[in-house]
Amino acid sequence: MTIRTKIISIAAVSGGGKTTITKKLGDKLNNSKELFFDDYDFEDSPEDLINWVKKGADYNLWNLEPLLSDIDLLINSKEAPSYILLDYPFAYKNDKMKKLIDISIYIDTPLDVAMARRIIRDYKNNSITEIHNDINFYLKNGRIAYLEMENTIKPSSDTVIDGTFSPDKIVELIIKEIRDREL
């Protein structure tokens, strides 16, 4: 009997914990494979995120073919994983991806916590001027992309988990959700 690969997407704002949780979840789930949205070059997709959000954030404008192709290769391989874990920000909002996802998890990280994490992660060796510039950009323009996620991705996800929990606790809750759903 062939067991179908289950696809779990993990969404959060930038700095919300997607990558950390996807990696830790991969360490806990046997026979899993992680795919990370940021590892792909999505040609013919929106280049200016702020403009894209201002024009209505049509998630189907994203050409996700490279990611979809990798998912297809994994699913149809002789040694298909039991789980594909997607560090993927759009939950069910892209029609092509929606058909593949078995469960979408949203890590609900307060925006101030996400911003603090981004600064710690991205600006270890940068000047205070660069940090100020990023924060100014966030306040003037970037915040709308974060709010888009809170207003659209969060409610379209199957499960919302508090992003202030420890990564181990978040992974524990996701595994419980997977088992409760018999994925």
Descriptive key words:
183 residues, alpha/beta, five-stranded parallel beta sheet, globular
Helix and strand arrangement:
Elements: E1 6-11, H1 18-28, E2 32-36, H2 49-54, H3 65-75, E3 83-87, H4 95-98, E4 103-108, H5 111-122, H6 128-156, E5 159-162, H7 167-180
Parallel strand pairs: 1-3, 1-4, 2-3, 4-5
Molecular structure report:
It is a single chain. By secondary structure, the protein is an alpha/beta fold. The protein contains 7 helices and 5 strands. The chain has helices at residues 18-28, 49-54, 65-75, 95-98, 111-122, 128-156, 167-180, and strands spanning 6-11, 32-36, 83-87, 103-108, 159-162. It has a 5-stranded parallel beta sheet, with helices on both faces. Helix 1 packs across helix 7. The mean pLDDT is 94.
Could you say which structural class the secondary elements and strand pairing correspond to? alpha/beta
- Kindly state the mean pLDDT as a whole number? 94
Helix amount:
40-55%
Return the string of H and E elements. EHEHHEHEHHEH
The end-to-end distance, rounded to whole angstroms, is 16 Å
SS strand fraction: 5-15%
Q: How many strand elements?
A: 5
The major beta sheet can be summarized as:
5 strands, parallel
How are the strands of the largest sheet arranged?
2-3-1-4-5
Number of helices: 7
Using only CA atoms, what is the Rg? 17 Å
* Shape designation: globular
Low-pLDDT segments, ≥5 res: none
Brief description of this entry?
The chain is α/β, with parallel strands linked by helices. It is 48% helix and 14% strand. Helix 1 (18-28) packs across helix 7.
